[in-house]
Write the structure tokens for this entry.
Amino acid sequence: MKSREQEYKEIFIAEALEYFDALNRLISELEKRPQDDQVLAEIFRMLHNLKANAKAIGYLQISDVSHKLETAFGLIRNKELSFSDEVVGVLFDGIDLLGELIKSIDSERQVEVDPVLIRNLDIIVDSLSDSTVELAKVQKFSTSRNLTLSDLIYIQVKKLDHLMNLVGELIIDRDRILSLSRELDSDELKTVGSHLYRITEDLQYSVMDARLVSIGTLFNKFPRVVRDIATAEKKEIDLELSGQDIQIDRNILQIMTDSLLHLVRNAITHGIEKPEQRVRADKPKAGLLQLSARSDRESVVITLTDDGKGIDIGKVKNAAVAQQLVPADVAENLPDSEVYSFLFEPGFSLAKEVTEFSGRGVGLDVVKNAIDSIGGRIRIESEKGKGTSFILQLPTSIAVKGALLFEIDSIFYAIPLIHTDSVVALDKDELHEVGEVLVADIKGETVTVVYLDELLNVEESQMRLGDKTRLKGQVQNIIIVSYNNRKLGLIVDKLYRQQDIVVKPLSKPLDSIDLYGGVTLLGTGKVCLVLDVPAITRYFVNRR
């Protein structure tokens, strides 16, 4: 049982961290609009509350720093202190110190307060504008910060993870009971089964709901980050945020935090031009960065758009050929969407020089791996000279996935819906043998098609993936899957329904087989293997 003091402490930390994020955002806004009295009033109010709350609970260092900052903003509000670059730097350092002090409450480490920083705050507070007293130089705002989300959502996340696993087990048993009730044709069992279905569905959504956080908890950290990187890069950036109220699973947001930070850094360092280059290109001096979120059925779509120089397709093709990712003659005819997929290859880089943020060999492949790990998708849209968008499609929950069930050789398989584009039925004559594979025209696009039976059940040396004689029947059921801007058609024997499944990891030694992403149990009690679309797609790209 938690003590009352512990509860008060957790509530204080959660609220203080929210204030810390909001203060960073508001000061970044104030820097752009120094005359905005409303923003000033909000900053003043937050610092006053933080000071009072910290004093009440006995965190006197936090209370003292908050008091100094509150006084400084009071002077700015009364026009007794100018909001100059030098002053802004000190205030940001003061806010950073507050953040360090708040985060250290729950850890053993002591924060060493830089006396030069406290002296700077005192100089500002005492309004010593006398030229003999200069602000001492301290470490200016950190530009390579790491973003972290608070674990304090009043229920520990690991407890919610455990609950979600239990719900997953329950769903598997529920489907088994429903299947039995149909087999035994028992009215009583059917009644119990349908009631159980409703209860587990409610429980599933309740647990998923308890794990949701607003995307704003991450988005609202970016005004400060963008400001710091832009200052270091000597660029002007306007950041527009939208969709902060969209809800997503907290674990998914935590996994995506570093990836989003990486994409934002990339957009500022590589995408958006220096002010003088933008003016020459008839663009506004300040680059525009838009970070938005929206709900799309069972997933959340996060889009990061910049109005920079865009991606040079020719350069990417040349780099891909130089790094032996593709032969020159093949590269020449690739559609743009496939060319962009090279950007996600390990070690691929167009950076000519190492800066604080780029050219270290850590590229978009890290972002891709993070998105793959949660069963999401990423794609790029870009226009040379106009800008680039990264579109991330993320599941709202990790544990329960929508999947399409199908059968090959009397064995059940499932494919996650997030990778499934469409399902088509084609006549055998519409499939053409090209090289070692089959291709088909699907909605005006030439798509490689493979017979999954060959891939999953035949030794590699015996495989003849481009041989139509292996196919059963005249009409072929094909699932079109897509990964990393590449499409692939998978021929299956029978198609079944869409269903929510709980994916369990494969046990050893099966976990080393790349083509399978896990296993689930169907209501009939049959085991169903879940295909790993990224692994299958990579297999064919490597073969090519």
DSSP finds 17 helices and 18 strands in the chain. The radius of gyration is 28 Å. The longest strand covers residues 287-296. Residues 4-125 form a domain with the Four Helix Bundle (Hemerythrin (Met), subunit A) fold (CATH 1.20.120.160).
